[in-house]
C-alpha cells in the first residue's frame, strides 16, 4: 500500500509500506477521506514527530476486513474513526477529564490517516468508530473528529443564548466554532483573522462581524460592538500565546476565555487582578473524546456545520507536502483541506 510519510518539514514521501495485519478484535479500513488538521501542519512544520511518521487522524473510509471477534461493524460499512481512546476508569476519566487520561495518547491507529489502508485497534473499534448514514459523505465523516473537538471546547466553556462571542482565528477550527456558537444561540459572533479570504469565508458561514486585527484594535472593535461590555466568551483558536493578552482586553466582566490552541512553551504576562475584580475565567480544551462523536455526526448530517462550504481544497495523498504548504500560506484561500488516496 502507499502512505504519505513524514521525514522533515520539506520532505514528505509517498512510498510503499506493508499493509497492516489485523487481529481478532480489529478492522482494516480503506481510506476514503482524511482531513488535514492544524496539528498535522504544526507537527510537520516544527518537526515534532520522528522521521517515518504517518500523520493524519480525521478519518473516514470503508471497512475491507474484520477480525473474527468483531461484531459491531462488518465488511463494507462506511465509517468514521478517531485516534485516541481514554480508559474511562482512572481518576481523570471519573471526573470527566477524558483527554487527560494516561491511556489517551497511548492509543492510535496504524500507521496514520494519510495511508491507503489503516489498522483500527480494538479499543477504537469499540469506542471511536461509528457508521456513516447513507446521506452523510466521507468528507462529513472526516469532520466528525474536529467537530467533536469543538464540542469538547464548548463543554468546558458553554455558550448561553444571547452571549457575545469573540473567536480569534478564522481557520478551520474557528469556522467550526462560529457555526456552533450560532447554533447555541449566541447573540453576536465576532471573528478575527489576518487572512482576508478566511474572513470572507467566515462571513459566509454566519459570522456577524469578521475583521482584520490590523484594521482596528480588537479591544476597540469588541467594545464598540458590545456597548462597552466586552465579549462574554473569547476563544483563542490560533497557536499564539500573545493572543492571551488580547483576549483579556476584550473579555467582559464575568466572562470566559477558552484556550483552544497549542501555545509554545514560555510565560505570558496577564492582568491577574481581573480574576478577583471581574471573576474572569480562563479554561483550556484539548482534543475530543468518545461522548461527542455521535453528536458531531448529527450536527454534520443536519449541516449545522457546513462541510461543503468549509472544504476549500482537495489533494491526493501523494501531494501532502503541497497541501501543507497551501494551508500555511499566510494569504492563501484554504480553510479546510481534505486528502484522498491517489486512485
UniProtKB/TrEMBL annotation:
Its EC number is 1.1.1.14. PROSITE patterns: ADH_ZINC (PS00059). InterPro entries: ADH-like_C, ADH-like_N, ADH_Zn_CS, ER, GroES-like_sf, NAD(P)-bd_dom_sf, Zn_alcohol_dh. The keyword Acyltransferase does not apply. One of its GO terms (molecular function) is zinc ion binding. Pfam families: ADH_N (PF08240), ADH_zinc_N (PF00107). The keyword Iron does not apply. Residues 8-339 form the Enoyl reductase (ER) domain. Gene3D superfamilies: Medium-chain alcohol dehydrogenases, catalytic domain (3.90.180.10), NAD(P)-binding Rossmann-like Domain (3.40.50.720). Keywords: Metal-binding, Oxidoreductase, Zinc. It is an enzyme of class 1 (oxidoreductase). This is Sorbitol dehydrogenase. The lineage of its organism: Bacteria, Bacillati, Bacillota, Bacilli, Bacillales.
